[in-house]
Amino acid sequence: MRKTIFFLSLLIAVADICVPALQSQQSWVLGPWVRASQSPVITPRPESTFDDPVSGKSVHWEALHTFNPAAIVKDGKIVVLYRAEDDSGKMSIGGHTSRLGMAVSADGIHFLRQPEPVFYPSTDSQMGRESPGGVEDPRLVEGPDGRYILTYTQWSRNKNFFTVGVATSTDLQHWTKYGPIFGTTGKYAHLKYKSAGIVTRLEGNRLVAAKIHGKYWMYWGEGEIHLATSSDLIHWRPLEDDAGSPRVLLRRRPGKSDSGFPETGPPAVLTSRGIVLLYNAKNSENHTRDPAVGAAAYSVQEALFSSKDPNRLIARTLSPVFQPTLAWEKSGQYAAGTTFAEGIVFFHREWWLYYGAADSFVGVAVAPKGKD
């Protein structure tokens, strides 16, 4: 019996040594990230108007905040879909209506913007899930057939309910909505969930949804990060644990910048070392937080999963790879500060990361591709 206890203790000790050593191997990390601009690249425009199909009124659709962007490379340019909040409702987070604007850039920093939103609540099959409230926090990938796949948060303020919706387009301006990714019936019909990034692979300068073992994969969730699979990029099925609940892959860590919780970031990237997932880390407000990061601030961390088994976590960064430091990243409607990553592209032989700053602006950082 004593030999058994000694052997188990030895295994635990070895594990305690090996896991931090494994996590310290940073060669798999995308980065280091450096700001490509010291100023926001997209800011609110109070003069922009839009005839809202739900209310029938003209609204200032991007008057208050422009943030949390998705990104894609199309025709040699970067296209960003950004969340824009109008000046309706209460002056509080979640109190306005959100729509998605579109901006195009030849250099990744200077953007030409569409005068009206390209994706918004309307008198369609999803109106009850998106109005009053809005469409929020997009992630964007290209499908193997050239379609664009958009995952986004459907927010219903009256019902206090949110889900991840999915939509497709061939031109990024005209969209077909399919509703919640987990459907409207069955065990997940009443689940509140958000934040979904599909696993991609780099093909030339395009990030295209990748099949592994004949299926598409998607990391999702706020508070805890989970995994789901699909055969068509539209209908998704969560991976479950033995109790029949969504399997948890990432949890909060006391003392780290994700001590509040982790939240899925931009689409994950399949590399030669594994699947790299950038995720948004909320720092705790109490004694469990990372003292090097502001209380309740959102920074960016990275996790590595096996390319043979996307469910298996290999490594996880111990400290942020990117965090709010500039005044405009900490002085918007979310004053604790955010560098909330949602869009990643490969452009001009570099990684470009688009993020929301303080729930108010869009910023961008770049990183070398490295040897992968």
Report on the structure:
By secondary structure, this protein is mainly beta. It has one domain: Tachylectin-2, Chain A. The protein is 7% helix and 40% strand. The strands form 6 sheets. Strands 13, 14, 19, 20, 21, 22 and 23 form a 7-stranded mixed sheet that branches. A hairpin with a 3-residue loop joins β25 (350-357) and β26 (361-368).
Topology of helices and strands:
Layout: H1 2-23, E1 34-35, E2 50-51, E3 58-59, E4 65-74, E5 77-85, E6 98-105, E7 112-113, H2 127-130, E8 133-142, E9 148-156, E10 161-169, E11 176-180, E12 196-198, E13 200-203, E14 206-209, E15 211-212, E16 215-220, E17 226-230, E18 236-238, E19 261-264, E20 269-271, E21 274-282, E22 298-305, E23 313-316, E24 339-347, E25 350-357, E26 361-368
Parallel strand pairs: 13-20
Antiparallel strand pairs: 1-26, 2-3, 4-5, 5-6, 6-7, 8-9, 9-10, 10-11, 12-16, 13-14, 15-16, 16-17, 17-18, 19-21, 20-21, 21-22, 22-23, 24-25, 25-26
- What CATH calls the topology is Tachylectin-2, Chain A
Q: What shape does the CA trace take?
A: globular
How do the helices and strands follow one another from N- to C-terminus? HEEEEEEEHEEEEEEEEEEEEEEEEEEE
Radius of gyration of CA atoms, rounded to a whole number: 20 Å
Helix/strand/pairing class, anyone?
A: mainly beta
Short description:
The protein has 372 residues and is mainly beta. The chain has helices spanning 2-23, 127-130; strands spanning 34-35, 50-51, 58-59, 65-74, 77-85, 98-105, 112-113, 133-142, 148-156, 161-169, 176-180, 196-198, 200-203, 206-209, 211-212, 215-220, 226-230, 236-238, 261-264, 269-271, 274-282, 298-305, 313-316, 339-347, 350-357, 361-368.
